[in-house]
Amino acid sequence: MDSEEYSESDSSYEGISDESDSDEDTLDAARNWCRIDQENLAPPPPRFPFSGNPGLNTRMDSSSPIEFFCIFFDDDIVGYIASETKCYAEDFIERNDLTPSSRVQKWKDIDSSEIRVFLGIIILQGIVQKPLQKWYWSQRPLLSTPYLKQLMSEKRFSIIMKFLHLTNNETIDLKTHPQLGLRKIYEVYDAINKKFKSSYVPERDVSVDEALSLYKGRLGYKQYLPKKRARFGIKFYQLCESSSGYILNSLIYTGKDMTLWIESPNYKSTTHIVMTLLEDLLDKGYCVTSDNFYTSPELAELLLSHRTDVYRKLRPNRIGVLEEI
C-alpha cells in the first residue's frame, strides 16, 4: 500500500517511515518484536519513497521477437562468439594431425550472420523437439524439417557445434578468475546478464527465487532438486520483476567459488545471494519478496538500512528470532 495513504501518527509501527531519523532507528524498529491483534490490525508501515523510472531503457523500431532478441544478443556479443569460435577452430586444426577424410578439413571461417542463423536453429530445436539431432535434416517425410535445410546443412551445423567457443582459453587465469566454475562461458554470460540489467528498469515490486535449468550431463555443480519439475540441472538464483516475471539479474550456482556481494564476512550465504542480486536496486525504494529460505531478521535489517522494503514469511528457527515465536 502506498505510503501517502498513511501519516506517521496513523501507524503503530514506530521508527519505520519515510521520515526516519537514521538507519539506526530503522534497524532498532525492525527488531522491536510485538504481538499483533489479528482482529484489529494496524495499518502497514509506509514504504520508502520510490525513485525508480520503470520502463524500457533502449530504443526499438518495432516490437518483433527478433528485435527483442537482438537487445540481449547484440552485434558485440554475437561478433565475440564468432571470433572465439573461429580462433578455436584454427587452433584445433593447427595443433592436430588431421586425416584427409576428417570432416574438420572442410572447416571454413564463420561470421556473425552465420552465428545468428546457428542460434536461431538452436532455439527452433527447443520448440520442435526430436530425439536425435540428425532427424532435423532427415529426408523421410514423417521426420523432415524442410526449413532447416534452407538455413544450414547438417554437416555445417555439426562442425559449428564442435568448435563453438565462448571464451579465450589463453587468457583464463585460474588464480584470479572471478567465476572459475563458469570460465568457459563467463564473458558471454556476464555480458548478457548486464544487458538484462541495463535494458529495463523494473517497477517497485521485485522478487528473488531460484530456478533449475534441466541438464543431465556431467557437471561438477549440477544440482538435484526433487521438488522442481526438471529435478536435475543447473541452479539459478534470479531477481525478477513481480508483475511481469522479467529477469533483472541472475547468478549460476557453482559452489563455494561463487563471487557474491560482501559487506561483512559474518553474513549468511543466503543474505549475500539476495544482496548480490539486488545490488543495483538498493537505496531506491524497491520492495522485495523472497522464499522463506532466504528471509531472516539479518536480511531485513540490511535491506532496511539500504532503504529497501522486504516482506515474506519467516521461519521460526532463524537466528535472531525470539524463542517465544
What do these coordinates show?
By secondary structure, the chain is of the alpha/beta class. It has nine helices and eight strands. Among the domains are: 65-163, no CATH class; 202-312, Nucleotidyltransferase, domain 5 (2-Layer Sandwich). It is 31% helix and 12% strand. The strands form two sheets. Strands 3, 4, 5, 6, 7 and 8 form a six-stranded mixed sheet that branches. A two-stranded antiparallel ribbon has the order 1-2. The model is unreliable at 1-28 (pLDDT under 50).
Mean pLDDT: 85
Structure summary, number of beta strands: 8
Which outline best applies?
elongated
SS-based class:
alpha/beta
Q: Note the gap between the termini.
A: 27 Å
Instruction: Indicate the radius of gyration in whole angstroms.
Output: 25 Å
Largest sheet: 6 strands, mixed
CATH class of the domain at 202-312: Alpha Beta
Contiguous uncertain segments of 5+ residues = 1-28
Number of helices: 9
- Portion of residues in helices? 25-40%
Domain PiggyBac transposable element-derived protein: 64-320
InterPro entries: PGBD
Pfam family, one: DDE_Tnp_1_7
Biased composition (Acidic residues): 16-27
Summarize this entry quickly.
By secondary structure, the chain is of the alpha/beta class. Helices cover 31% and strands 12% of the residues. Among the domains are: 99 residues, no CATH class; 111 residues, Nucleotidyltransferase, domain 5.
Structural features:
325 residues; alpha/beta; Nucleotidyltransferase, domain 5; six-stranded mixed β-sheet; two-stranded antiparallel ribbon; 9 helices; 31% helix; elongated
